[in-house]
Amino acid sequence: MGLWLFKSEPSEYSYADLERDGETEWDGVTNPLALRYLSQVRRGDQIYLYHTGREKAVVGILEAVADAQGDPGAAAGRRWMVRVRPLRRLEQPVPLSRIKADPACAAWELVRLGRLSVMPVPPPIWEKIARWASSPSAEKGRG
């Protein structure tokens, strides 16, 4: 099972919007590296949703309900999309400041490549975020 992080500006499409919709096509990605990652998403993969903008925090978990496929609204072979559904909101959003404060996360794309909208999440970092999300100290930058 793959582990991913997708970014979204909550004013454009938030976790609450996905909860309301039940499922959506994750598309509109244009960065070549993000597209390469998006093309690797498979049915059953889990995905952290990260809200950009003012929030700058991981807020929920999604699941891919189908393998990535070519986006029919784009030139052939140039774009990808993935159908996703919400699994659950995190108990506590995990802010970017918390992630950046942990030296074990320093090499991760979320920290190094701030504009990348789709990226893999190494299993140890996935587990850290899960722990921080269930800890009341996550917002305070401890954990």
What is the strand and helix layout of this fold?
Elements lengths: L2 E6 L6 H7 L2 E3 L5 H8 L6 E6 L5 E8 L4 E2 L9 E16 H6 L7 H4 L5 E3 L2 H11 L10
Parallel strand pairs: 1-3
Antiparallel strand pairs: 1-7, 2-6, 3-4, 4-6, 5-6
Portion of residues in beta strands equals 25-35%
The CATH topology, please?
Answer: ph1033 like fold
Report the count of strand segments.
7
> Into how many domains do the coordinates divide?
1
C-alpha termini separation:
26 Å
- Can you write the helix and strand succession as a string? EHEHEEEEHHEH
- From the spread of the alpha carbons, the general shape counts as globular
Q: Name the average pLDDT.
A: 91
Major sheet summary line: 7 strands, mixed
Roughly how many Å is the radius of gyration?
14 Å
How many DSSP H or I helices?
5
CATH class: Alpha Beta
CATH superfamily: ph1033 like domains
**Fraction of residues in helices?**
25-40%
- The CATH architecture: Roll
Q: What structural class do the secondary elements suggest? A: alpha+beta
Taking pLDDT < 50 over at least 5 consecutive residues as the criterion, the unreliable ranges are 138-143
Organism: Thermogemmata fonticola
Domain EVE: 4-131
Protein name: EVE domain-containing protein
Pfam families: EVE
